[in-house]
Amino acid sequence: MRKIAMTAAGIAAAGIAAAVIGTGVALAPTANAATSGTATACPSGAVCLQEPNGSILSKNIWYSYGPHNLSNVIGTKTLINSQTGGAGFQLCLEYNGKNCGPVYRWTGPSAPHDFTKINSIVLVK
To answer: Per-residue DSSP letters for 18-84?
Structure first.
């Protein structure tokens, strides 16, 4: 009888543990949920960073003026300026829009850039 009671208690404990684990797994978002979306075209009003395969990660679409820090962006990529009203962008060697190059105001894709040393991009009016 004691063995049966211990087995039943073990099964119940395992069931509770499975329910807790199952709930945690079901409710926990993936680490890259916010950045896994991709686009094939840069939306109007935005500046986008296009990957070599032509995709645009949702984390690399910017609408607001000012600096945008880049993280883990390396290799050759293309910027696409889809802003309106003559707005442009700058590429910067430091974070927070410091040590920037000229303002690019044309629309459409830029020449490919090596982003290994680029640490931020600034959207300007």
So the answer is: HHHHHHHHHHPPPTTTTT--EESSPPTT-EEEE-TTS-EEEEEEE-SSEEEE--S--SEEEEEE--S
CA distances in angstroms from 112 to 5, 35, 78, listed in the order given = 70, 22, 5
Half-sphere exposure of 36 (CA within 13 A, CB side): 5
Q: In tens digits, what is the pLDDT along the chain, a chain of 125 residues? A: 444 444 444 444 444 443 334 444 333 333 333 345 666 799 999 999 999 999 999 999 999 999 999 998 999 999 999 999 999 999 999 999 999 999 999 999 999 999 999 999 999 99
Report helix, strand or coil for 118. Answer: coil
15: its two tokens: 């069931």
Q: Model-level pTM?
A: 0.67
